[in-house]
Design brief:
It contains ten helices and two strands; from the N terminus they run αααααααββααα. It is an all-alpha fold. The protein has a two-stranded antiparallel ribbon with strand order 1-2. Helix 1 (5-28) runs antiparallel to helix 2 (39-62), helix 4 crosses helix 9 (200-211) and helix 7 (133-154) packs antiparallel against helix 8. The chain is globular, with a radius of gyration of 17 Å.
Length: 249
């Protein structure tokens, strides 16, 4: 089924965050069946498979970016129309918000039982293991750089939007698996410093949702919040720029 590309990005990012935020809630909140069960292994694996499923669902409709950093990187590399960037950004942000809210509703009883507010916030958005903003920025930059750089070598299909064929700007369904594996690898290898947001919508949207929750003593950590937004955007744009230079040498 071919959907409107903006709707596809919204649905895909909603799916991504439902599964992604869901696994973090599952292994961290009180009295879940999976509480404390090898959390990092489960989290990195589930995020990789969440990307796989979400890309598979939306690839033929929107190219399955599901991430403003990917959209920006593809545009910088000349593989995506700049006119579509704002709409993709909005669809991804609102999809991330809805997905994290659905995960919250799914685990609402366990949220009520959990009193540690850092654990609660961690089910919505990322945070540094060691707070050093310069190094935290670099961690998000390099993780996203590797994501977008890898994606740029995976992209293949031509997809038609509004009657205009756009060359190689998205992911075909068969490419969903290698992208999921790439996200899994980034989490295992590079994610231990900041929780590897590597996606501005994935972090900022759920952080907004968390800030609206009816909980006492909540702290959305807005002083840190720019790191998982700006770091991935710069990393994605840099990957697109370097890719463009390499393919034209």
């Amino acid at each position: 089924m071919i959907m409107d590309p903006y709707l596809a990005e919204f649905i895909g990012t909603t799916t991504l965050l439902l599964f992604g935020a869901g696994v973090v809630a599952n292994v961290n909140l009180k009295n879940t069946i999976a509480e404390g069960q090898n959390p990092w292994v489960l989290i990195t694996a589930a995020w990789g498979f969440a990307v796989f499923v979400s890309v598979f669902i939306t690839s033929q409709s929107s190219g399955a970016h599901l991430n403003p950093a990917v959209t920006l990187g593809l545009a910088v590399a000349g593989k995506f129309s700049w006119s579509l960037v704002p709409g993709y950004f909005c669809a991804q942000l609102f999809g991330a918000m809805l997905g994290s809210w659905l995960a919250y509703i799914t685990y609402i009883d366990h949220y009520r039982l959990t009193k540690d507010e850092e654990i609660i916030r961690g089910t919505f958005c990322t945070g540094p293991a060691v707070r050093n903003l310069k190094n935290n920025f670099f961690s998000e930059f390099i993780g996203t750089f590797m994501l977008v750089f890898g994606v740029l070598f995976i992209v293949g299909p031509n997809i038609e939007i509004s009657g205009s064929e756009i060359q190689n700007f998205g992911l075909g369904s068969l490419d969903a698996l290698p992208v999921g594996i790439l996200v899994w690898l980034i989490g295992i290898a590079l994610g231990g410093t900041t929780g590897y947001a590597i996606n501005p919508a994935r972090d900022f949207g759920p952080r907004l949702v968390y800030s609206f929750l009816p909980r006492k003593n909540k702290d959305a950590d807005w002083k840190y919040s720019w790191i998982p937004v700006i770091g991935p955007l710069v990393g994605g744009a840099t990957a697109g720029l370097i890719y463009g230079i390499l393919v034209n040498i």
